[in-house]
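Hey everyone, long-time lurker, first post.

I ran two proteins through the pipeline my lab uses and got sequence/structure pairs for each. Pasting them in order. The first:
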Amino acid sequence: MKNILIVLLLLPLIGLTQTLENIDYISPFHNEVAAVKKGTEWAFINKEGETVIDFRNDLVLTKTDNENYPIFNSERSLIASKKKGITYFGYIDKSGKTVIEPQFLNATNFKNDVAVVLNLVKKQLGGNELMKNVVSYHYFEVVIEKDGKINQYLTEDPIHITLTKEKMKNTPVITSKLISNNLVAVKANNNKWILKKIK
């Protein structure tokens, strides 16, 4: 009698399997997860087909194998958020939790636990009676670690910008490239390359 009772209690749970239907695209696996698309939203599944991050619309697509889809690398995936018409980039972990808030003007996927981002800096210039708060914005190309901490600056001179949606119609371009576990190629003003070691 006990065995029949246990079987009756477990029977509904045995039948609970997750089925994803009406999927528009399924990517190859990267970092043990694959991206799946339904409509305009993306989710991530594990190798058992279980959804590990539910469908959302803030994941950033990466061109991989002549296709565009979000990926995980070094346990991080890019997300984007618009504020006052300007796109900012950040990262989530494999639970879907935002671990680095969208704050960068552009960002690469992580590679070997580091990423290259455009770090925005706001500088208060003062003010007067007519203009109470006068600020200046500029950015640097920097290498960040998985927690968002800046590892090192790649550009010495700041790049000044006007931070309005009218002036920022396109995302600024990252010119530096991670080329190995400990090397980054930085494009100089003369269009030549400088190799730097990642600290």
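...and the second, right after it:
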Amino acid sequence: MSPVVALLAGLVLALIVAAGWIGWIWKVQLARFDAAEGLAILSGMRWRELSNLVVDALAASGFERETSEQQSARGTAGEVRIYRDGRPWILVCRQGVNHVVTRAAVDEFARSVRNVNAAGGVMVTPGRVDADARLIASNIELLDGVELWKLVGPLLPASVHHEIVSRARARALRSSGTALAVTVVTGLALGFGLSRLVGGEDATLAPPTAAATPTRAVAHPAQAAATQAPMSEDEEREAIVREIATLPGVNRVLWSTHSTLQIYLTDPSRANDDALCGVMKRYDLLRASRLQIQTPTDSARPVRFMQCAVY
């Protein structure tokens, strides 16, 4: 086998593996990307908005929305109640894609359900529920992650689904590019290794040339870095989310639309406008994006919008 044939064999093998990997991304992983983007949208909603979606979705399971007369009769507006077969159930929503519903949280919820003489309870979260938390009570229904998305996703507007599909496809494209690059580099490395084995005798006859090759490869690392391509818009989006999420006083960050960045604060005095704009202004493509500043739920300050730069 000649060195050229060895390189071609490695490249062909890499392309075969890449085709299988990319096929898996678009047939399996794309649906997971779609659910992840949808759950990020749900996580960004107010709990009342999410609870209304869940109530509508649960209608197929025999649940009915509480009427104004029923709400007036019990005299409490601080909790969401739904009814099945004429008996009340309690609905609670735990926001955040990273939220974990523990056994202790479900146990506490079950006690509150018993205290108000409700028939049962429904707890939902875009995050996940611990496995042992599902064993506490038979009258407590728990919905999390993909299960929640499948329940309420069909109720979202078509424009929201279009945005979710666009984001999911962008992630799939990036993953496909990564898969192709990794397999091609690996295949070429394998082919190069085979070619060195095949041409080992010839290589021993010309040691100066063999020694000069690695010297040229590492001679200009600064020049290679200087010619690196600028970041794409999607790469800037991910970099901005990562950087702002590390700022003191920031809870979580997500792009609600292509032009709006939602920032949830725990301490507005620490994550002030200067700190946020200091990050945004470093990214040329997205420096003029609109920022939606969400203050803590116990804060009297309303949601506000701002821009750090103009187009």
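Reply from user beta_strand_b:
Welcome! Quick read of the second one: Confidence is low (pLDDT under 50) at residues 208-219. The first helix runs from residue 3 to 43.
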